[in-house]
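Sequence and structure are kept together here, with a separate record for every protein. A complete record is shown below as an example:
=====
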Amino acid sequence: MGLIAALARGLDRIGDSVGRVVMWLAVLLVFLQLAVVLLRYGFSTSFIQLQESVVYTHATLFMLGIAYTMLHEGHVRVDILQAGLSPKRRALIDFAGVLLAAIPFALLVLWTSWPFVAASWRIREGAIAYGGLPFQYLLKSLIPAMAILLLLQAIAHGCRCVLTLAGHRPDHRGPAFAPARR
C-alpha cells in the first residue's frame, strides 16, 4: 500500500503544481478581455492577435486546469446519491467511475486527438483568422495535454479510492498530500 500511497502523492503533486501555475491565467484572461473591450468601445479599434490571445488563454486555463479541478473536488457530482453513504462506499463508487469513465475517456481523447494534433504540428498550422496568432498547433496540443493530465489525476484518484477501501485512508477525496494554504 505504501507504493500506491506514494504514487497517489506524486501524481496529486503534479496535478496541483500544474493547476497552481495555470490558475494565474485567469488573471491574465481578465486583463486581456478588458483590453479588447476598452479598445473596441473606447477607441473603436481592435487587434485580431489580442482577440485570439483571449481564446488561447481561455483554452489553456480550462484544458490544463481540469486535473486540478478533479483533484480538489471542484467537478460536478451527484452528491444527493452519495450523501448518506460511508466513505468506503463513496470510494467504491468513485473507483468504478474512474475505471469505467475517467480513464477510458482520457485514453479515447488521447488516442483520437493524436493524429489531428500531429498533422497540425507537421504543417505548423497557422492562425485561426487572417492576421491572427500563428500558433494553432500549440492550441491543438492542449487536447492531448489535457487528456494526459486527466489520466494521471484519474489514476491518483483511483489510488486514493483503493487506499480508502483498504482502510489506509479515512476518505479518498482531496489530495494525498497536505496542500499549501491558499
Observations:
- The CA atoms of residues 121 and 137 lie 5 Å apart.
